[in-house]
Amino acid sequence: MGWRVSTLSDKSTTSDLFDGPTPRHSLLSGRYKQSFAYLTLRTRLPGIMQQIIMRLVSDVPDLVNKYGEDVRKDVKQIVDAIERLKMQLNRDRQFLLFHGAEPDKVEWNAFISEMPRPKKSFFRACWLHAECYLYRRIFSFFENSRHLHNYDCFDHLKKEDLMLSEVAMGALARATRGLPKSFDVFSKLLRINLWGNHFELQIGAFDFAEEDSKDDINVLVKVADIDRILLVNDTTLIWNCLVKASKTGGNCIVDFICDNGGFEFFTDMLLLEYMVDNNLATQVRLHVKAIPWYISDVTRADIDWTIAFLTGHQDECLSAVGKKWANLMKFEKIVIAPTSHFWTGPQPYFVMVESDIELYRLLTTSKLAIFKGDLNYRKLLGDYIWDSAEEFITCLRGFRPTNMCALRTVKCEVVCGLPEGMADSLLKNDQNWMISGNYGVIQYTDSLKCSCALPGQESGEKDKRMPGMVVPQSQRSTLVANHQ
């Protein structure tokens, strides 16, 4: 899912960018012209902002019908603000503080204020900070308007993605009814969920033979070829974690930190439905974005729309699936977790214990937290280029609220936990393997495996979460911003 983007941009006034890739053991940054971060900041994000303007302008007639002629003032002010932001990005300007009605204004302003001045502009900052700031700033234009404070400039893309995936949804819905509790089935659903939109494209284009049943999950798995490019597969450890937890009795809560809406969320729910139906989880908590985010990230409104769309679908199986999911939510087998703006902040997850202790405590009450997608993976690893063979647990830098799993297709240079030498071998055969989205990992770590960097570490003690650094307690929240 994504925008058709322009490749044209105003010439930057920056003079200290480097004509090379991002060095190992540093943060991803647009400073390096051969990095995917630079490409995104230079071409993709300006294109996305232009598409937002075009969408908003095209919606003016409907908005006037809904809010009256006065809404045109909002539209003009927002378009002007986005144009200014685009100029600020192109010219590598400094990040500005928030001064409106943003509920997370204090946290954002503290973060921006504590960033070192040379690293608080779009191309000089950590890529994660620059992208998060841009998406947060865009929505601030809407939420500070008179009429459009709930306007989602991306919702049509998420809806279209689901509506255009009906063939794959129908096949998956029929193939996943009444599946038995087994490792084999769980493994298939986990991998289908990982590949998401890859799966949709392959199912939609596949010419099924007469003897092939679209209602057979094994046929669908064969079509998707879901083992071909899986670099790390810890599915056995995840299964053992859930089975062990379910045997102990009592609550077995699973936290699912969502990624995209549309068809990908449909596959998320198929996996989670299976876990609840087979007592691998007594309850699943969905963590969604508080605001429109990164084009396709799922919000509470997206979930409500998805279930309503399925429930009213003319395909009886899809309608039955929608009604079942509505009941699972009604009886709180699957719930939406309390809204947290931490998920739309710029911080890596290892600072959650200092930045949002309530969210951290909530995660500690679950038996497993599943982090879905590339952005969640970048935040788990801090947008830092580790050695590709570094252990997953090391790269989390002490973020261990519970047992954890990452389901991620590789879309940028941040990756860890690969077998020694695998990255070099991949590079020889595919120069773009780290940004293609064609490779995936299913990684797991047990919460009891180590006790590094526990909360309450003495001030000034060497922090094991970023090698070689001494981090005073007061500076933990800006650790990534300061490290280069």
Automatic annotation (TrEMBL):
Residues 1-17 have a biased composition (Low complexity). Residues 472-484 have a biased composition (Polar residues). GO terms for biological process: DNA damage response; intracellular phosphate ion homeostasis; methylation. Keywords: Hydrolase, Manganese, Metal-binding, Methyltransferase, Nickel, Transferase. Its cofactor is Mn(2+); Ni(2+). It comes from the Eukaryota. Residues 40-425 form the Damage-control phosphatase ARMT1-like metal-binding domain. It holds the Pfam family ARMT1-like_dom. GO terms for molecular function: fructose 6-phosphate aldolase activity; fructose-1-phosphatase activity; metal ion binding; protein-glutamate O-methyltransferase activity; pyrophosphatase activity. Subfamily III proteins have a conserved RTxK motif about 40-50 residues from the C-terminus; the threonine may be replaced by serine or cysteine. Metal-dependent phosphatase that shows phosphatase activity against several substrates, including fructose-1-phosphate and fructose-6-phosphate. Its preference for fructose-1-phosphate, a strong glycating agent that causes DNA damage rather than a canonical yeast metabolite, suggests a damage-control function in hexose phosphate metabolism. Has also been shown to have O-methyltransferase activity that methylates glutamate residues of target proteins to form gamma-glutamyl methyl ester residues. Possibly methylates PCNA, suggesting it is involved in the DNA damage response. Belongs to the damage-control phosphatase family. Sugar phosphate phosphatase III subfamily. This is Sugar phosphate phosphatase. It comes from Drosophila erecta. The lineage of its organism: Eukaryota, Metazoa, Ecdysozoa, Arthropoda, Hexapoda.
